[in-house]
UniProtKB/TrEMBL annotation:
<feature type="region of interest" description="Disordered">
    <location>
        <begin position="136"/>
        <end position="189"/>
    </location>
</feature>
<feature type="compositionally biased region" description="Basic residues">
    <location>
        <begin position="179"/>
        <end position="189"/>
    </location>
</feature>
<feature type="transmembrane region" description="Helical">
    <location>
        <begin position="78"/>
        <end position="97"/>
    </location>
</feature>
<feature type="compositionally biased region" description="Basic residues">
    <location>
        <begin position="136"/>
        <end position="146"/>
    </location>
</feature>
<keyword id="KW-0812">Transmembrane</keyword>
<feature type="transmembrane region" description="Helical">
    <location>
        <begin position="22"/>
        <end position="41"/>
    </location>
</feature>
<keyword id="KW-1133">Transmembrane helix</keyword>
<keyword id="KW-0472">Membrane</keyword>
<protein>
    <submittedName>
        <fullName>Uncharacterized protein</fullName>
    </submittedName>
</protein>
<feature type="transmembrane region" description="Helical">
    <location>
        <begin position="53"/>
        <end position="72"/>
    </location>
</feature>
Length: 189
């Protein structure tokens, strides 16, 4: 995507503006990558706790300028639209990728709640709408510290089991944890 957008900007700059190729390549590469670099800087500032609104707005303005230049620099606007679309697509894909990484980092540190379970449209919402809406409502009402992420080993255990795990195993459980604790459990000991 980036390469296609760069080709479009270079050809537009050479044909329309009459800029030599050796000057056009670094100039439009700076324009095309400028929005990404400024957004990377704002992402760093956001990790440090700032909002970085000015950096995000500048990044969007640079990306919009690159898209506009790609469209306006080509006399055939169908070709310019293709190159503009590739420029916008590259920026938006990168923006989504860094946003996903930011949310993942926040989830790991506890800054965001775990992702809720995904309910299929046909398998859940259409076939069982009442049950699915109850499950969604219960998940949203449950206190955050009691939520267990989907797919974790203790998903189906009662809340008391989670508390016991956090506090440590009870003394009678520790006595059974020998090399043959399964045999004693089967025998009823």
């Amino acid at each position: 995507m980036l390469l296609v957008a760069l080709v479009g900007q270079v050809t537009g700059a050479v044909q329309t503006l009459g800029v030599p190729m050796i000057v056009a390549v670094p100039a439009v590469a700076t324009l095309e990558l400028g929005g990404v670099v400024v957004m990377a800087n704002s992402d760093l500032r956001r990790r440090l706790g700032e909002q970085a609104i000015a950096s995000r707005l500048l990044s969007a303005a640079i990306a919009a300028g690159a898209v506009t230049f790609n469209w306006a620099a080509h006399p055939d606007h169908l070709v310019g639209g293709f190159f503009s679309g590739m420029s916008a697509l590259g920026y938006l894909v990168w923006l989504m990728h860094t946003g996903n990484q930011r949310r993942d980092r926040l989830r790991v540190t506890g800054g965001l709640p775990p992702t809720p379970p995904a309910y299929e449209v046909f398998g859940h919402w259409i076939c069982h709408p009442v049950i699915t809406s109850r499950a969604v409502h219960r998940q949203s009402r449950q206190p955050r510290h009691l939520r267990v992420p989907e797919g974790s080993p203790g998903r189906d255990r009662p809340p008391t089991a989670h508390r016991r795990d956090r506090q440590g195993a009870a003394p009678q459980d520790q006595n059974r944890r020998g090399p043959d604790h399964r045999r004693h459990r089967r025998a009823g000991v």
